[in-house]
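Dear support,

I submitted the protein below through the web form. The confirmation email said the job was done, but the results page showed an empty box. After a refresh the structure appeared. I'm attaching both so you can tell me whether what I see now is the final result or a partial one.
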Amino acid sequence: MRKKGPLVGSAIMSAIPNLKEGVAVARPRTKKAKDKAAREFGDRLVELRRARGLSQHELSDRTGVYQSDISDFERGERWPDAPVVAKLADTLNVTTDELLGLSKPKSNGGTLYSRRIMRRMHVIETLSKRDQQALFRVIDNALAGATGSRVV
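What the results page shows now:
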């Protein structure tokens, strides 16, 4: 019999109810169901990470979670601990419920940007407001010349 105390790791995941379409159901108990749930979590993590143009290494750097752990989560090999789920959700700009599949992710209009564009956007965000405005003027002028009309 397990000693009572704080829940850690996979014990947390098995204690959290799984909400699907507003109905509370028990967390999967069989190995097959647990494996399927872990794969589904991994698929969501991959989709969200790629939609934000991040590699596993970049996600690792931003969360402080080992890249090998992120790989394990994405392959459905194991579940992240609750604090790691929170870090991943925060970094991916989703709620923990969305990351865990308890609610549907809010859509950004279905647009997925290329990794190359997203990397540039992350660099632009680090620039000063003045440098960002100057860069946007250059981009707007280039796009206006290429399309023949004003973009923004």
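Response: this is the final, complete result; the empty box was a page-load delay. The radius of gyration is 20 Å.
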